[in-house]
Amino acid sequence: MKINNRGIQIISIPKIEERRGNLSVIENDTIPFDIKRVYYLYDIPTGSERGGHAHKDLRQFLVALSGSFDVVLNDGKEETIITLNKPYEGLLINSGIWRELQNFSSGSICLVVASEVYIEEDYIRDFDEFIKYVNRK
Ligand code: TYD
C-alpha cells in the first residue's frame, strides 16, 4: 500500500519555531475532513498494542505528540508499516483501512483527530470480516 494514495497520507502540521519552544497547530484546513472529535492514547505499557480494527466511514489523523510508535496498515491487499515520531507530522488514515498500533516508546502519546463522533457500529473489529467488507461488490 503506497503512502499518499487514497488510503493513507503523511501530512505536515504547520510549526511555529521560537527560541522559547515550538508550537504546532491543526486546524480544519490542515486535514481533509471536519474535526468532530479528538482523543489521545497515553500511559501505554511497554509491548502494548492498540487498534486492531477498521472503520466503515471514520477518517482519522494520528500524531505522535511525544515519543514514537508504529502503525501497521492494511487495505485488504497490502500491508505497510509507518513509524510516527514527529509532533509536526501526522498520518491520515481514510476509512476502510485496517490499523494496528505497536512498538510504543516509553512515555509516548498518540493524538487522534477524528472525522466523526464515537459510533461503535462504525468499527470492523474482525479481520476476516474486514477482508469481506473491502472485497464486497
Ligand atoms: P478503541 O477504539 O478500541 O481503542 P484503540 O483503537 O485505541 O485500541 O476504544 C477502546 C475503548 O474506548 C472502547 O471500549 C471504546 C471506548 N471509546 C470511547 O468510548 N470513545 C471514543 O471516542 C473511543 C475512541 C473509544
UniProtKB/TrEMBL annotation:
It holds the Pfam family FdtA. Residues 7-134 form the Sugar 3,4-ketoisomerase QdtA cupin domain. InterPro entries: QdtA_cupin_dom, RmlC-like_jellyroll, RmlC_Cupin_sf. This is FdtA/QdtA family cupin domain-containing protein. The lineage of its organism: Bacteria, Pseudomonadati, Bacteroidota, Flavobacteriia, Flavobacteriales.
